[in-house]
Write a structure and sequence with these properties.
binds iron/sulfur cluster; single chain; binds adenosine-5'-diphosphate
Length: 689
């Protein structure tokens, strides 16, 4: 360690009977892999340990079939047969001298048990958390006794598997013990309901059971929500949450504290700054003498040191920063701070998890495919031959491609039509709340400064003749896409919206380019259903326009549920007085009004509009790649061997896809053909009949 500014972060710390080598604590977090993508999961955790995290945790590890999240894969300890996967994960983590933590979990009212068909369990009969017409069965005393037994057996199995830390989970609205603690969900009149002491009884009993079962060998951690934002029924750091911490202060060996639900804990950067949880969690260390871990999307080692010095936490918890950069601790240790790939807080990682697919990340394209594609966040295969690659366009796809090829050792020339790198991100980072997204460019810009074999040329809009003269053997076209102005999208897939070709109709790109939007009422038509419609509306509201959002869906920004932004978007729009008209298509645009059509009844209404902004879909810029394909033989004659398009100019989508495409081109470039039919390894279920 060259830089003792951060030496505090590398001091060991006792946690009950075990000791962590440093203060980098990779907290439990879902991966969408669980027992289904078992090989991928083992490798995923191993790489975190390799990257220097002192503690590496599992995702939720379900203790019983009455807690079944199918179709979102988690870990599982339902019987002896489940120990093996955990043991292999523990062994992989231990190879790198990290501690292995297992988050035992029972999801209570948050598990629909779609595979096992068990009744969801709860303190009372209460509705299931997600979408679905389920409710819980109220647990009787036998159920409570059984639950304690399941938890104890699972703790013992976790210890057998090699866990150093075993969790008692009471957070995110995803835990049966939190449902018991809640005044909103617990309506019991026995000794497990009513007073706080009664509602906290099950949590306390399970903590004691776990200590008794494994406490001689494993540290017992509690993961506890100190603020659940449940309005009048809230368990808050101001009152009952504090009382619980006081009540149980010295019982666990570690307090891992955060806020609920998941959308508040994994707060998107559009709505939450780094360190946003501290105001809720900072009391905990004053109440307990046990080590405390807290999260808050921390990527700055200065902020980390300050948190520990100020006595807010002892250990820096991280899920997303460890996803964006599994090697964050080792980069801090090696004083390699400029190379930290900082999380941008976009929550693309949560989207795949919620959709039951292996995790992915905008910043780190290797995440989730460490095993299946054999991609590593830091180590890249060296070049095979001397080759020069021309990359046209420096948006996320072109940038990632150029940086990865450059790191592999190839000569790379990047041609950019504009005067800055970054493509769409350079514009989007200026939209309300999206400034952290600029880290996509900042990280790669720094990488370029370290790569003398990558040259970048600005003001260079290349055409066919220019490309022939460059002298590269390979051409990658990454010219991106533009938001449509004609309104075509999901609701209007074939024909443009009638009346679109008028001066007061704009695209999302026009707004990002600061087009002069007329005064008066503005309609933003969102047929994209992610973030663009609402951020454009926010931007227009900020310059004094009277904005109304219109969407054909039953709600605005449906897909943002998967990035945990949905509720925050609705709240922000309400705060800014931006009304939303749902289930309406844009049928026609006149000079001062639009005609909206109800998507189910066909009924029409007129709404005043001095301007219309389309946030419907993007049109790929295929002009260059089409031209090059048409002149393939001419290009071959001047020594150009391959021409390929990547990113949004192939199929527009979220930034994560463009970055993945860039990485994929660069990883597969010039590699010997493998015998495998597929570019990735498949997880295979073992057949038992
Ligand atoms: P992606 O997300 O696929 O990376 P972007 O739209 O973000 O796509 O970026 C595309 C980049 O390509 C933009 O910066 C644009 O200026 C640049 N570009 C488009 N056409 C050309 C061209 N013919 N020559 C050089 N650069 C181009
Ligand atoms: Fe951070 Fe976005 Fe990556 Fe998630 S997907 S870890 S929020 S950069």
């Amino acid at each position: 360690m060259n830089n003792n500014r951060y030496s505090l972060l590398f001091e060991p710390l006792k946690i009950g009977p075990v000791e962590t080598k440093n203060r980098f604590y990779n907290v439990p977090h879902a991966t969408g892999m669980g027992y289904v993508y078992a090989n991928a999961n083992i490798r995923y955790r191993e790489i975190k340990a390799e990257g220097g995290w002192g503690v590496v945790s599992t995702e939720e590890c379900m203790i019983h079939p009455s807690s079944d999240h199918t179709s979102s894969p988690c870990m599982r300890l339902w019987d002896e047969g489940d120990i093996d996967l955990l043991k292999r994960t523990a062994d992989a983590v231990h190879k790198h001298n990290a501690l292995f933590a297992v988050e035992l979990a029972h999801s209570g009212k948050s598990a629909a048990n779609r595979m096992t068909r068990e009744y969801p369990l709860g303190p009372s009969v209460i509705p299931y958390t997600g979408y679905g017409p389920y409710s819980t069965r109220a647990m009787d005393k036998t159920d409570i006794k059984n639950f304690r037994t399941w938890h104890k057996i699972a703790a013992t199995r976790a210890m057998q598997a090699g866990a150093d830390i075993v969790y008692v989970y009471c957070g995110h609205e995803l835990s049966l013990m939190q449902h018991f603690l809640s005044r909103k969900y617990n309506r019991r009149s026995d000794e497990y309901g009513g007073s706080l002491e009664n509602r906290a009884r099950l949590l306390k009993e399970v903590l004691m059971d776990t200590k008794e079962a494994v406490g001689h060998k494993c540290a017992v951690a509690i993961r506890f929500s100190v603020e659940d934002f449940n309005g009048e029924f809230s368990i808050s750091s101001q009152d009952e949450a504090r009382d619980v911490v006081e009540m149980l202060a010295e019982l666990p060996d570690l307090w891992d504290v955060n806020v609920s639900d998941w959308s508040n804990d994994s707060g998107p950067s559009r709505f939450f700054n780094e360190g946003y949880q501290t105001e809720y969690t900072n009391f905990v260390k004053q109440v307990t003498s046990k080590p405390v871990v807290g999260v808050g999307r921390y990527t700055s080692p200065d902020a980390m040191v300050s948190l520990i010095k100020k006595g807010v936490v002892d250990l820096i918890g991280a899920a997303r920063p460890s996803i964006a950069d599994p090697f964050l601790p080792s980069k801090v240790q090696n004083d390699d701070l400029d190379n930290i790939r900082e999380c941008i807080g976009c929550n693309i990682c949560t989207s795949n998890v919620l959709l039951g697919a292996p995790i992915r990340c905008t910043q780190n394209p290797s995440i989730g495919v460490e095993w299946s594609r054999n991609w590593h966040p830091e180590k890249l295969p060296e070049k095979q031959t001397e080759q020069t690659v021309l990359v046209i366009g420096s948006g996320p796809a072109g940038l990632e491609c150029a940086v990865t090829l450059g790191k592999r050792g190839y000569q790379v020339i990047v041609a950019e039509a504009g005067t800055e790198i970054g493509g769409r991100v350079e514009k989007e980072r200026l939209l309300p709340g999206l400034s952290e997204w600029g880290r996509i460019i900042d990280y790669r810009q720094h990488q370029l400064t370290t790569l003398p074999n990558v040259d970048i040329y600005f003001d260079s809009r290349l055409g066919l003749e220019d490309i022939k003269e460059v002298g590269a053997q390979h051409v990658v076209v990454a010219t991106g896409a533009k938001w449509r102005r004609d309104g075509r999208g999901k609701a209007n897939p074939v024909n443009p919206v009638s009346g679109w070709d008028q001066d007061h109709v704009f695209s999302a790109d026009d707004v990002m380019d600061n087009a002069n939007i007329p005064e008066g009422p503005v309609i933003v038509f969102d047929d994209d259903h992610y973030y663009m419609g609402s951020v454009i509306a926010e931007k227009l509201a900020s310059i004094g326009r009277q904005v109304t959002l219109v969407t054909p869906n039953g709600e605005l920004a449906t897909w943002s549920k998967y990035t945990l932004e949905f509720g925050h978007i609705q709240k922000r729009l309400a705060e800014k007085n931006i009304p939303v008209i749902t289930t309406h298509n844009l049928a026609h645009i006149d000079s001062q009004q639009v005609t909206l059509q109800q998507v189910f009844s066909g009924e029409q209404q007129q709404v005043p509009a001095s301007a219309v902004v389309m946030a419907t879909s993007q049109k790929p810029d295929t002009e260059l790649i089409d031209t090059l394909k048409q002149h393939q033989s001419e290009l071959n004659d001047v020594g150009i061997e391959t021409i390929e398009a990547i990113g949004d100019c192939v199929a527009p989508g979220p930034i994560v896809q463009a970055i993945h495409d860039g990485r994929r081109y660069a990883m597969e470039f010039d590699t010997p053909d493998s015998d495998s039919e597929l570019p990735y390894k498949l997880e295979r279920t073992s057949i038992q009949i």
